[in-house]
Structures are given as structure tokens and as C-alpha cells.
Amino acid sequence: RCLLPGWESLSESPKMPKLLDRGNSRAYYFGRRTAEKRLFIEQKVSLINYSVPNPGGRLEKADRLHLKNVTFRQGDVGALPFTDGAFDIVLSLNGFHAFPDKEAAYREVFRVLRPGGIFCGCFYVKGEQRRTDWFVRHVYEGMGFFTPPYETAFRLKKRLEKRYATVTLGTVKGMAWFAAGKQNKENREEP
Asked: What are phi and psi of 9, to 5 degrees?
């Protein structure tokens, strides 16, 4: 199963090739047409959105594509309505810079991810691009799209390394992308 918190922004993302392929657990970056269909067809997907239950007509689109393995829910990523270890993959694209309680969101993502699962995604990080930092502070915060405090790439890497067994992280201008693997052993204590 795959969890996509903050999914309302995904349909505006550019199409990209396969992101992960780990045996029976597959996840693809949401894009338009083909990539979107492949993500849904290959596994059970749960999408959770904080503000709007059906932005952009996603329910109707899933119905038109005959996607029966997709569930849409409204909820808070800081209090996810799923059992511990319920997901193979948690994919958050452009979400964490908007979540109001980032600490709770990090805890919940770790909790619902099964041992050996992958947490991956991308979001804004401050200090990488002055123009982006200015725009975030002066435009996006005022519009309610972004919520401080923000991570730096360095702090994000350290945060993920405290919790996950493997971490790959990079930046492109003001955005960080990452993939973090949860340790396989059930007895690992959460930091």
C-alpha cells in the first residue's frame, strides 16, 4: 500500500519516470496520463488531504479510469487514521512545507510505514535559493500555502538519519528531494 499525504498538488507535477521498484511494492511519481494510471493500477493507494475532500474532481477521475484500489480521505497528516505499519511507501510531494504541525507529521509518517518501507518525496527547504526564500516569505506564507518553520537541507538530512536506516537526499534550487528507508527489524525503537 502507498500513502500520499497532501495529494492535492500532485496533478500539477511534471511527468517523471518510475520512482521506486522494490519487488511487490511499486510507486510512481504522479504525473499526467500514463504515470498516474501506473501508480494506481499496480497497488492499493490511499490519498489523504487536509483541506478539501475532492480537489480538482479526483474522485470522478478515478471513477472514469476504473481505479478501484484507490481511497480518498480528508484528514490531518499529524494524526493519520491508519494502523501502525500499514504502508509500504509514503510519498509526500510538496506537502511538508505546508503542514501546520511538522513534528507530528514526521512521527505519523514513521508510525504508518512498515519496517523496510520507504518514505520519499520533495518539499521546499530554506537557504538554498534566495529568490525562492523571498517568494515563500512574501507571497506563499501570506496566501496560506506555506507554514513556517521550514527545514534546511542539512537539518532535513539529520532529521531523517535519526529515524531511518538509509537516507538519500539532494536539492534542486529551493527544493529538497529524498528517499528514506525504515529499518527492517520490527524491534527498532522510534527516536
From this structure: -90, -5
The neighbour count for residue 68, using CB atoms within 10 Å, is 10
CA nearest 171: which of 155, 188, 187? Answer: 155
* pLDDT digits 0-9 by tens, 84-141: 998 888 888 888 888 889 999 999 999 999 999 999 989 999 999 999 999 999 999 9
- Whether the Cβ atoms of residue 39 and residue 27 lie closer than 8 Å to each other: yes
Residue 121: Cβ-neighbour burial (10 angstroms; 0-12, 13-18, 19+): buried
Which residues lie across from 45 on neighbouring strands? 2, 70
Residue 103: exposure state from Cβ atoms within 10 A (0-12, 13-18, ≥19) = exposed
